[in-house]
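seq:
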Amino acid sequence: MTSFDTARPTPAPPSAAINIAHKFSLIDAHWQPRVVAEMNDYQFKLARIEGDFIWHEHAGTDEAFIVVKGDLRIDLPDRAVHLGAGEMFVVPRGTRHRPCAQGEVWLMLVEPRGVLNTGDSGGERTAANDIWV
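struct:
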């Protein structure tokens, strides 16, 4: 094993365009982000969400939310940010937040590899990392 080997296999770069709508159709559970691409150490994750998530924060990184379909509310300690399809918001590192969706939302997240969806809170809503779709 050389210093360039890793314990986790890295998926091959896509040989064709990624059809995001098709990838969403392969996700069958809410609040279970799935990786569709990587760029350097960042992952592009898709998630189908509905209802309220838990309050949490990511001490070491910002987190980008891009709404593909639906309406998302991100609760922050002092306000709420409302996003519709085609809009995005970056939650600054260390900021407590809670994503909420009254109906189903198709969401793209951009964050470093290894970031847990529940951040510092953990618990039963923590999804497994590095699951590709």
